[in-house]
Amino acid sequence: MLNIRLISLIRKEFIQILRDPRTLILVLIIPVMQLFLMGYAATNDVRNVPLAVYDQNRGPAARELLDAYRAADYFSLEYDVDSEDALRDLIDNGDARAGLIIPPDYGEKIQSEENAHVVFVLDGSDPTSASTALSAAQLIGQSKATEIMVERQARLIHSAPISQPLIVHTRVWYNPDLISSYYMIPGVIGTILFALTSILTATAIVRERERGTIEQLIVTPIRPWELVVGKLIPYVLLALFNAVEILAIGVYWFKVPIRGNLGLIFLFSALFLMTSLGIGLLASTLANTQQEAMLTVWMILLPSLFLSGFFFPLEAMPKVLQWISYAIPLRYYLVIIRSLMVKGVGFAALRQEFLALTVFGIAIMTIAVMRFKKRLD
Fold this sequence. Notes:
Layout (H helix, E strand, L loop, with lengths): L1 H17 L2 H21 L7 E7 L4 H12 L3 E6 L3 H10 L4 E5 L3 H6 L4 E8 L3 H29 L10 E8 L7 H31 L1 H6 L5 H29 L9 H25 L3 H18 L11 H7 L3 H15 L7 H26 L1
Parallel strand pairs: 1-2, 1-3, 4-5
Antiparallel strand pairs: 3-4
Helix pairs in contact: 2-11, 7-9, 7-10, 7-11, 7-13, 9-10, 10-11, 10-13, 10-14, 13-14
């Protein structure tokens, strides 16, 4: 009799689980998503770092040096510029993560068996990528120097001491000491804005529905748009307060600089909030319980954290995941907040990110509000 009762209870629980297919699907998908994200996105093995080249020599010796950097899969020679200002603009905009400057007399010094000097510039705003690229740049330079040294030695009749034929001078911009907090603290601001507003907004609205108070609000003279705005504004203010709190702690405790315009930081933060609030509002229209709302938001939050560049460099991920990351709004905000705080760039360098966040914010919020109004009706 005991076994029959136990089997009946187990059967009842399975029936209840199967009656809620939405939650069941979410519970089954999240572990698989975690597995693939951890397997492919959780890596610091940076490859194909975008490299800008300012070659003032344009000779065969310079081309051989570029071939050495091209042969290694650490760098991708994507930009050929004609000035240091153009190289700086590419790094400021985030299009290039490193730059190689070859002086006009490089080929002459190589041929005359003198010491040739080149400059390798790195974007230090991402310490993980920068440290890997720094080591790779030095190793490639040393390997090429050894090759040149062997060739020179072969031309000598008598053995003689040969000095280092190629010297690579490295410069790390924005974060010369490669301090990790310069990279993480701005990222924390973005994740707080995203996670706090989306989760709290979704659960707060669903909680009204669970308690039956949403019907009381509907029968009042309040308009649907007023209900939406009234529910969202408290979480906007709460998220902005937390952002200011983290920003102050980062600056005064962790000594993270704010080199950009503070007004731009709050402008872009407010724009990004429109996206995160829209996601929370949209999740509330898909869920019937707070548990479903939390799981729905986590379905979006989890890939956003891994594919936005918060934990791991995007350059280290497979190309497929890099393409998917362009559909993650948090990716653009992290570029913005890190560029404003660490690099000190202006609005012109962030126009693409501004346009992307504007499109995401308007589209997601419009869809969420329309679904919310329809559900109220």
